[in-house]
Amino acid sequence: MRIPVRKQIMWWGVAAVTLLLTLWLLGQAVLPFILGAGVAYLLDPVADRLERLGLSRTMSVVVITFVVVLVFVAVVLLIMPVLIRQASALIETAPQMLDQARAFVDNRFPGTIPQGAGLDKTLADLQTAIGERAGSFASTILGSVRGVIGTIALLVIVPVVAFYLLLDWDNMVEAVDRHLPREHAATVRQLASEIDEALSGFLRGQSLVILILGIWYALALMIVGLPFGFFIGIMAACLSFIPYVGVLIGGATAIGVALFSFWGEPVWIGAVIAIFGIGQVVEGNYLQPKIVGGHVGLHPVWLLLALSVFGALFGFVGLVMAVPMAAALGVLARFLIARYRESSLYTGQVAPSDPDMPILVEIVPAGTVRDSMRQARLAADHARGQQEIEVMQEDLLRRSTD
Q: 138-174 burial, b for 16+ CB within 10 Å, e for fewer?
């Protein structure tokens, strides 16, 4: 007997709510395992490619783990100290740049900024607060970053979880496929494939775009001698996963620092503007179409909504889960919309009910059934006679032996 669709939805809804409650209750405890699973998901295509080149799965995972650990150590030892130092210096210099910008506007465009006592006091208090709290704020933030990076959970559990999941990834996928509900297995596989396409296209493609833009912005700004250029370039590249946000925030910060540092040297200010202009042109006309390409993308508004909602509900774990959940919910939303457009709620017509089982009627010549019954009786009588003869023969044989 087929289980009603409403009951199936109820059970799967209970399972989804249970999963969300588990994430909410466990919080930071599951973060290393989520990160490990994400790393394994991102690196599985690399392992498959190494297998096609002739390496075993174990050797492929060992090679990938060694390279990733080496890159991570290099980033922590070579890049993180520079980022931390420049971020601290930029925060400490911000009040001075704000004060100079306000003085410039007052001198060139008198009356543009209201000179009321309340506004002056507010701006003065803001500058004082920034100046007093910048050091402690930066040290707190950067100290927490060091703490997160230095925790045993992220340095030990994440690589171990990623290693074992990457080693057994294909077997896990097969096991999950075997446990899919048979009635909906084909639909679930199709949805999973679309989610994988959207998620892999965004994560792997966008990661490569961020890497290229980060190298370009950081090196170019350092070459022109912009203070804090390395940090600003990396920040602009990391924010570029949301279209136009990276170039707007990074470009505004870089141009503001350039105006503060290169005032009277318009060539270098123009060079900073040109760097971000070239980066935006290359990203929009080459990197995004060629690397991310035709993958199903995530709308910026949808991505921001997912980051806000999951971050508010689940904290940092929610921020980590926001992108894959946004991809999954986007695919499910498109699927449900397609089903809605096929339903009677959209068309206004009642869907036809399933036809009843057909009744098979066979037309045969007259007397066919009677002849068949007579032949069946004759065959039964013949079989019974043969059985009696065999019994009699066995009885005679037994008496002769006695």
A: beeebeeeeeeeeeeebeebbbebbbebbbebeeeee
Q: 358 — alpha (psi -120 to 50), left (phi > 0) or beta?
A: beta
Q: State CA 321 to chain mean position distance.
A: 7
Residue type, 53: L
Q: Is residue 219 helix, strand or coil?
A: helix
- Determine the Cα–Cα distance for residues 196 and 164; give it in Å rounded to an integer: 21
Would you give the distance in Å from CA 357 to the centre of its chain? 46
294, 7 contact by CB (below 8 A) = no
Yes or no: say if 94 and 66 are a contact pair by the CB < 8 Å rule: no
Q: Dihedral sign for Cα 271, 272, 273, 276, please.
A: positive
Contact 214, 240 (CB under 8 A): no
pLDDT attached to residue 202 = 76
Token reading at 111? 């009356």
Distances (CA, A) of 62 to 42, 65, 67, 70, 166: 15, 5, 9, 12, 10
Predicted pLDDT at 220: 92
pLDDT at 353 over 80: no
For CA atoms 295, 296, 298, 299, give the dihedral sign. positive
Tokens 């740049």 correspond to 97
User: Rounded to an integer, what distance in angstroms lies between the CA atom of residue 315 and that of residue 27?
Assistant: 8
Q: What DSSP character marks residue 356?
A: P
- Compute φ and ψ for 126, nearest 5 degrees: -65, -45
User: Which 3 state secondary structure label does DSSP give 291?
Assistant: helix
Per-residue pLDDT of 54-85, as tens digits, reads: 889 999 999 999 998 899 888 888 888 888 88
**CB distance 35 to 158 below 8 Å:** yes
C-alpha to C-alpha distance for 23 and 17, rounded to whole angstroms: 10
State both tokens at 152: 């045993």
Integer Cα distance of 160 and 203 in angstroms: 22
The pLDDT tens digits of the residues spanning 142-151 come to 444 444 444 5
E strand or H helix at 4, and its extent?
none
Asked if pLDDT for residue 50 goes beyond 50, the answer is yes
Confidence of residue 219 (pLDDT cuts 50, 70, 90): very high
Q: What is the pLDDT of residue 138?
A: 47
**Which carries the bigger pLDDT value, residue 237 or residue 136?**
237
